[in-house]
Amino acid sequence: MNECKKIQQFITDAVDNRLKEADKEFFQSHISKCHSCRNDYELDVLTKDFVKTKISRQTTPHEIASRIKQDIDKHVAQEQRTRGVFAQYPLARAAVIAMLVFGIAFVLYFLNSPDIQNTVQAADMMDKSIENYGLFLAGTIQPQQIGQNVDELRDYFQERVEFPVALKPVKDCEWVGGVLSDYDGLSLAHLVYKLPGGIVYVYQTNWNAVLEGDKISLSNGAVTSLNQTGWYVNGTHDEYSVVMWLYNDETVCTAVSSMEKDQLRQMFAEDTQE
Amino acid sequence: MLFALPKNNNNTQQKHEEFQREAVPHMDILYNYALRLTGNPEDANDLLQETYLKAYRFWDKFEKGTNCRAWLFRIMRNSYINRYRKAVKTPEHVDYDEIKEFYNTIREQSTDANDLSERLFGQLLDDQVATAITDIPEEFRTVVILCDIEGFTYEEAAEFVDCPIGTIRSRLHRGRKLLRDKLFKYAHERGYEVKDK
Fold it and tell me: What DSSP state is assigned to residue B148?
């Protein structure tokens, strides 16, 4: 019986001709006397072969291939046009830059108010989170909705944002606050957990929007790690830890706190599961 | 400096050439993956188009010298998962014993693989097999497509899916079982002649 269990682990390798020499004999001799294991093995071989004969390799339909090429060419043309204007008319470039600089100064002047700070350039999500954490600590940003636990914030977020907001209950939490903001049409959700030792700030937004990187962006390292593991832990800060994770594959969350990064990650560990 | 200045046209040109050279040649393999993943040509076309546009937009994020095919593949898989996540199928109850019992019976009467295959799966059409593939959950489906249809090694599949080889092996094991169950059921339900005597 125990032998059958061991054989089960070899079946897939045997089907794909990957068995180590040392295991081949053991496998063969077992299936020659155990019909049940032999049948399991043969059924896998038959399934694999059957599927392979039924599914044939297709080539991309010509019109799709050319449509894709056209799409890319269109993109290229667009890029060149924008760049062309700048290359040909240095004055236009200077004017645009001057306008932008002026515009930013203007925006900063008026926006440097107790609101969540936005800039015109695509902001790095990590920098933004750290900045906002500081603003929460200083009391510059105040939650709009406060509850004893995350469930009391559910309705507040649900009606107003298009991505699922991660609302993870946290142990020993005294209260939890939430506030939404809008960044050039992109919704941002901010959560703050008040714990006995300090606060945990969580910044959340639409993952696809971050991947597009028009408004909020992320470093390549963070994107790769999130794509691969669902997590990204940044270890370069002394006074605080930053942990990022994907929630439901739709929302990217960044938590900032003064607690240890492992502890912070642990706090949201089950959050990545649906 | 506040803003990166627009670079000259050479960069666009160079990016375009690189993309044509490195990414475009993998179109067929991606199309086939899209086809097996979605189960129909319209969705496969959309997915392929979306993948290439994203790839072009993020081309500067592709690490030169690494496996471009695997990179494109991951973009496609993520796009697919994002797009169709709402329709995630929960695996239904699978009765492996039924097939095993059936196989045990026919195996006693024959040892010819073609004959056994025919008795198991009847005369299923290619389309029905394609549908059976889309009926198994994505994580298993992807590995079956890569290893059994495209013929990738476990190592290659592991790079594509970005997981350990052991995971590929166990998903393949489970995936084949799930698929076999679907095929067997289809063959029976559709009233194809499945001889058990």
Answer: I
Q: Do B9 and A57 touch (CB under 8 A)?
A: no
Are residues A188 and A95 part of one domain?
no
Q: Note whether A161 and A247 are within 8 A (CB).
A: no
Q: In this structure, are residues A189 and A253 in contact, taking their beta carbons and an 8 Å threshold?
A: no
- The parent domain of residue A190 ranges over 123-272
Please tell me which of the candidates A58, A72, A104 has its beta carbon nearest to residue B52. A72
pLDDT in tens, A234-256: 777 777 889 999 998 899 999 99
Which residues in chain B are contacts of A61 at CB distance < 8 A? 41, 45
pLDDT, tens digit, 9 for 90 and up, residues B19-68: 999 999 999 999 999 999 999 899 999 999 999 999 998 898 898 888 99
Q: Which residue of B has its CA nearest to A37?
A: B100
The answer to whether A57 and B32 are in contact (CB under 8 A) is yes
User: What ipTM was estimated for this complex?
Assistant: 0.86
Q: What is the 3-state secondary structure (H, E, C) of A69-120?
A: HHHHHHHHHHHHHHHHHHHHCHHHHHHHHHHHHHHHHHHHHHHCCCCCCCCC
CB A42 to CB B116 under 8 A? yes
* Contact check, Cβ <8 Å, A55/B36: yes
Q: Which residue of B has its CA nearest to A66?
A: B49
Q: Round to whole Å and give the CA distance between B128 and B192.
A: 12
CA distance A221 to A61: 36
Asked if the structure places residue A118 within a domain, the reply is: no
d(CA A210, CA A251): 9
Coil vs helix vs strand at A179: strand
What is the set of domains in chain B, with CATH numbers? 18-87 (1.10.1740.10), 96-189 (1.10.10.10)
